[in-house]
Design brief:
505 residues; alpha/beta; Chitobiase, domain 2; TIM Barrel; 2 domains; eight-stranded mixed sheet; eight-stranded parallel barrel; 18% strand; elongated; binds acetamide
Amino acid sequence: MVLPLVPLPSSVVERPGALVLAPSARIVADDTADAAASVLADVIAQRTGSRPEIVTGSARPGDFVLHRRAGTDDEATDDESYTVRIGDDVRIEGSATGLFYGIQTVRQLLTSEGDGWMLPHVEIDDAPRFEYRGVMLDVARTFFDVETVKAYIERASSLKFNRLHLHLTDDQGWRLQIDSRPLLTENGSATAVLGRPGGFYTKDDFREIVRYASAHHMIVVPEIDLPGHTHAIGLAHPEIMEAPVMNDALLAQAAELGQPLPIAGEPYLGWGVGHSSVKIHDEHTWEFLRDVLSEVADLTPGPYLHVGGDEALGTAPADFNAFIEQVTALVAGLGKTPMTWHEAGSALVAEGTIGQYWGSVAPSAAHAAEARRFTERGGGLVMSPSDTAYLDQKYDADFTVGLDWASLINLKTAYDWEPTAIIDDLSDDAILGVEAPLWSETIASLADIDQLFFPRAAALAETGWSRADSHDWASFQSRIASLDAVWDAAQWGGHRPTEIAWSNR
Ligand code: ACM
C-alpha cells in the first residue's frame, strides 16, 4: 500500500498491521508539548468526530504520545525534523515545530475503516530538504481580511509550508497602517482591482496575523513593492510619484480587457503593470521610505523584508539600479534581510539580499544573470518560476478563475520541476527554497483561493520539503489521492482534477 503522505517524508518504513483507533485513546503530553497536544486533539476531532482527552503521565496501548525534544527550539535555527512511530501506540517526537509537522503527517495517515479509524504501523523519520518553503498571498489587488489570511495559514501549514509572504502594496491599494504616514491607508486603501472593496490591516491586525502564523510555524515576509507597483502611494503622497508611464503593453492590455488607464491621483482599478514609479532621486522619497520601512521592520519579528523590484518598466535601468542599491542597503541597515524579485539582481544589491526568481523554468540569459547576482552578493535564491509555481495561473484554458500569461499549469506541471536545475553554475547551497505565489486579479473569496491552491500547493510543498531523489509523479499521483479526505474534513474546497483517482477515506 502506498501511504497517503504529501509531502513525502525522508524515510518511511512500513510494518505489517495497523492500529485501530480506540474510543478510549488519549493524548499523553507533558506541559512542554501542550500546544501540540491541542493541535493533535483538533486534528483527530476534525477527522474522526471525537476529541481525545489530553493527559499527562504514562501511556496506555492505543494512546498518542507527544515527546518534545529539549533544546531544539531556538527560533532562528528551528529544528523542523520529527519522528513518528505507530505500533501499539502512536509516538511523535520533535521540537515544537517538529511536533506540529509530525501531527500533520498523522492527520494524513488516519484512514476510515468501516465505522472506525485506523493508522498503519510505520516508522517515519523526516526533515525538510529546503529551509524556505513559502506561499504568497496578494492582498493588494484584492484585499483579504484577517480571517481569510488565517484560513490561508491553516491550509499552507498543513502542507508544511513555513513562510507566508504578504504582498501588501501595489498600484491598486496600500494595505498596512503606517503611523507616520496615515494618508497611505486613509486615501490609498479604499478600493481594489475591478472596483472591489478595499481595506487594510491595522498594526494590531498585522500582529494577529504574525501571531497566528507563528502558532502554525510560519514566518511572515512583508512586501512593500518598490519602486514600481506604487500608484496607490500617489493617492496619499503625490509629491513623491512620477507621472504614470504608458507603455505599449499597458495600452494594448487595457484595450483588450476594457480596463481604464492609470490617472495620477485617482484609484487604479485595472491590472496593467509597469506604469508607476516613486521619484528615485528625490530626498522626500527617501524620507518616506525610511519612515515606512522602519515601521514595517519594527512590526515584523521575522528576518525578512521584501521590497519588490519587479516590473519597473518605465524606469531607466541606471535609475532602477541606483534605487535598488539604496533601498536594499536601507533594509539591511534596519537589521532585516532584504528580499526582492529577481530583476533587482541587475543592481549591486546589499550583501545577503535574497532574490526571488519568477522567470520561466527555461530562463533567458538576462534573467539567469540577474538571479546569479544574489549568490555573488552572498544571498540566496527562492524559486517561484511563474510557469510552474504561480498558483494564480489557470489549470486549463476553461478554468473559471486565474490568468494564463505565464502558462497553463495543471497538477503535473506544478509538480514536474526541480528548483536547482533552472539557473546554471550555482553552488549547492544557493537555492534556499521555493515559494508559490497567489496573485489576486481574478479571485475575490476564500472559495476562489481554494480553487487555485488545492491541489497544486501540495505539489509545490513536496518540491520544497521532500528529497530530490524521491520526486516521482506516479508516486505523487497515488499519494495525493487520499488528501481529498483530509481537505474535506477541514471543509477546504478546491479543484479535484480528473488526472487523480481521488479517494475520500
Ligand atoms: C511578478 O509576478 N511581477 C513578480
